[in-house]
What we know:
Gyrase A, domain 2, 53% helix
Amino acid sequence: MAASSPQRMRAYLVVIFLVVAVSFGAVIATDKKPILGLDLQGGISVVLAPVGDVRSESLDVAVEIIRSRVDSLGVAEPEISRQGDNIVVDLPGVKDRDKAIRLVGRTAELRFRPVLASVPPLSSTPTTTVAGSSPPLDESVIAAAVASCDSDQISAALTAREIPTTKTSNDKRDNCVVLPSREQKSSRLLLGPAALTGKAVDSAKSQFSQGQGYAVTVKFNEAGATKFDALAAESYPKSPPQNEVAIVLDGKIQSAPAFQTDSFSGDVQITGDFSPSEASDLATIINYGALPVQLKRLTVQNVSPTLGQDQLDAGIAAGIIGLLLVSLYMLAFYRLLGLVVITGISLSFVFIYALVAYLGSSIGLTLTLAGVTGLIVSVGVTVDSYVVYFERLKDEVRSGRTIRSAVDVGFTRSFKTVVAADLVSLIGAAVLYFLAVGSVRGFAFFLGLSTVLDLVVAYFFMHPAVSLMARHPRLVAMRKVGIASGLDVVEVKS
């Protein structure tokens, strides 16, 4: 095989150093950094479970709706996935955790209910029975009377005893209910059957209106607009609070705006004394409130930023210790060639940092502890490539070749082995990525990314670097540390 030209080898080195330097410089100049996952920067993890028997397709739709809802929080790369019938929502680095839990936990059907009456707050004073009077009705009897929507039964219940708040099990679409306000839990309203649900909504968005402040504009589909106009026509002539419509989710009244007209020719605008965040929250709830299944929260796990930082520090420390041990071993075993290994690993990690930072800002790629583990494991894959090449060089020199002539032949033959070994790692990483869930996918992705980069560095750095070094007799023949010493041969020829 003809020797590789020094000009081409130098060109390869210039190209790879230039690509790495420009990439790293670009992310530093633009202040891009890798986005850390839940286990590294803290956050919350919510596990949701379906109530009753549900179809797999319904859970898939629920995942997409929850993902859209979570995206409105501005969380960098949230992870929403199915694990069996459960839905796991990981929100790394979320700032307002209470708000995130509220939005993620609201998984019931969004309903628009007419307001029938105000209900007094629940009293903490036990009810007493006056001698000669009828005994108070049982709470379950009152709840049944309310659910029936029978005005006479509701009136009798009100005079007999205070009305309890409707339980979740009785909060059905066609029942009348007594529900509290989200903002003022002591404020309760008696609501009629749902006139329409979240499925009637096309879109909702918050916006600032001059003279009215922040408002929420709701666009209904054709069927929803017809039902909403019918509710407006029925409610508008009445006096407060019976001219209001309650927007209900998860057994709480999110908002109860009053009708200002008996019909709407276009979009419906909900106004009030909204702050920017309140208007945004209400728009999010209306947009993504309707789920095809009812879900309940199984667990809510908080990962503190301190714990995440500790895990990140531990992962980095493990990586540094591993790199130091590998570097010392390579220097001791291959002498001057060990510097090629160290430089190659350094190039790989600098480029990976730049690539992960760029992908984090562009597509939301998240680096988790499993990903860090994948990167550390990939060091072994990378070092194997150098070992395969160097051991092949030994065989070529022992067969009678000079080190200089063995460099190109050894690389051609060893690179096939490197490609085969890396291909095995890539196949394993791909299978893990497409079949696994959660953190295992992160491990597989970063292991695969590092493996691909290993092939690039081996071709554009490892071979050119060794080829150019082998052309300098002093580097080859340096006593105890030269290339010849690293390959366990006595080299006297150039």
